[in-house]
Amino acid sequence: MSRVDRLLTSGAVACGAFFAAVAPAAACSVCFGDPNAPMTKSVEMGVWFLLGTVLLVEAAFGIFFFVYLRRRVRNVRDPMPHPMLRLVKKEA
After folding, report:
1. Which residue, 1, 10, 21, 53, could crosslink 5 as a Cys pair with Cβ 3.0–4.6 Å?
2. Distance between CA atoms of 69 and 75, rounded to whole angstroms?
3. DSSP helix/strand/coil, 1
4. Residue pLDDT, tens place only, 5-26
5. DSSP symbols for 73-92
């Protein structure tokens, strides 16, 4: 066996031993407990609040780009015009 083959074999054996020795994960008391408990209800409300916040921010971005594109189509004057670049001829 070459050195690379031995390294790969020993790595595979080490990974297999690691995964065989891991204990199964147990759910926390909030996830595993009573679905009608006050702690579970407050966690659910927190998740809904954060989801609503994310959706509100995404909607604000969408409205911003919609208004911007609509103004561009109507040729509304840009509040910050592009700079005018002029060619300056060098005097000899």
Report:
1. 1
2. 10
3. coil
4. 888 898 998 888 888 877 777 7
5. HTTPPPSSPPPPP-PPPPP-
pTM: 0.47
58 is written with which tokens? 């995404």
13 within 8 A of 5, measured Cβ to Cβ: no
Token pair of 84, please? 């005018």
The predicted-structure confidence for 25-35, as pLDDT tens digits, reads as follows 776 666 677 77
Kindly write down the DSSP assignment for every residue of 8-45, as one continuous string. HHHHHHHHHHHHHHPPPP---HHHHS-TTSHHHHHHHH
